[in-house]
Each structure stands twice: as structure tokens, then as C-alpha cells.
Amino acid sequence: LGLAVYTDAAEGKERAKLKWTQNTGAVVSDVIANSPAAAAGLQAGDIILTFGGMEVTGGRKLLELAAALVTDADKADYAVDVSFVRKGANNAGQIKLVNPNYNIDRIVKNAAAPAPVADKPGFGISVRAVTAEDVKTMSLSAVQGLLVTEVKKNSLAEKMNIRPDDVVIEVNGTAINTTEQLKQVLAAGAVTAVKVVRAGSTLLLEAPVSF
């Protein structure tokens, strides 16, 4: 906010100096230059009566109200209505505060989707990490496994009936959550079984056997 207020006994003394007889309000002791409070026109000696539509009964109450503010992450800043008394006259204004959640929220929303990573040649799929957004849109139970983005024609993966948008969670009985884990399993030997999540169901797909 950029202001300081009196609390407890000191606040009572300041109210007496200002000839404020009501046992309510927070007396401003100092306002930091170029702060939101200064931009709103608040001055030392003002008595803040309401903040965000809530009654301010004292300095501690003002601090509690400021700490409890819930902000909309889609806005870069937000205005809080404030009413105060200055030299016996009632005044009203708005304190414009910077939203600390705004940039974080924008980074999360605008983050580029992980680039598809091709697996070992021969198996025939490209995958990427499962995201929190995938969990919502695909009705997954958790952020786990690798999302299949492509299945190559005539590959072993195609013969095993692996499809785009399948989520690979196991290969040859080994849990898969990263592309590095997938590469290690593929490098260890031939793929015989892949467990995937498809449309909310878990399927075990086995490699065809030739005799």
C-alpha cells in the first residue's frame, strides 16, 4: 500500500490529537512517496474508515484487510475503494495496487507446449510430456505418462494398435513418465507390451508374435 498506520495505544493518542472522538478508523502515520497510497492522495494524519467496502476499526484491522485481499489473476492491477477523513471532512478515493499473481498466471497460460520428442527409430511413435491442461481436456486421473503425438506407418507401434492421443504409462512393465525413461527402455531390447490410457480406459497392447 505504501503507508504506515498507528496501532494500539499510539493510535488512541493520535485520534485525540486530531480531535477524532469516534473509536474507529486507522490513523495514517506516514505515506511513502510514489506509492499506491500516495498516488491515491492519502496523507499523514488521514483517518481511513473503510477499505474495499469493509469497515476499518483500527490500524491492525487495516493491515488484516490488506493481507486478505483476493485478486483476479487476469488483471495486471486492481483498484480498492477507500474512504477517509481529513481535517474533519469526509473523502473517498481508490488505491490502485499491482497484482503479484498477474505475471505468474500469464507465464503459465502462455507457456509453449513441450516440443514432441521422437523415440528410438524402429518403434515408431513421437511423444511429449503430459501437461495439467491435458489432464483436464482428456479426463486423465493425473499428470503421468507420455502423450503420443504421432504413430508412423507400418511401424511396430502401429501394429500394436497404438494411436495418437494415447498416453503411454508403461513399456515392457516399466513405468514411463519422461522421454528419457522411454529411451532407456527402448534401448534395453525389443518392445513386447505397452500399457496406455485411451479415452479414460487402461489398455495393455502386446506386440504381434510371428512363428
Roughly what is the average pLDDT, rounded to an integer? 82
Tell me how many strands there are.
13
| Strand composition percent | 25-35%
Shape: rod-shaped
Low-confidence stretches at least 5 residues in length (pLDDT < 50)?
none
Structure description:
- With 211 residues, this protein is α+β, with helices and mostly antiparallel strands.
- The protein is 25% helix and 32% strand.
- The chain is built from 7 helices and 13 strands.
- It has helices spanning 8-17, 36-39, 59-67, 102-110, 132-137, 156-159, 179-188; strands spanning 3-5, 26-31, 47-51, 54-55, 77-86, 89-98, 117-118, 125-129, 146-151, 167-171, 174-175, 193-198, 201-206.
- The strands form 2 sheets. Strands 7, 8, 9, 10, 11, 12 and 13 form a 7-stranded antiparallel beta sheet that branches. Strands 1, 2, 3, 4, 5 and 6 form a 6-stranded antiparallel beta sheet that branches.
- The longest helix is centred in the first third of the chain and has 10 residues, at 8-17.
- It is rod-shaped, with a radius of gyration of 31 Å.
- The chain starts with a strand and ends in a 5-residue tail after the last strand.
- The model has no long low-confidence stretch (mean pLDDT 82).
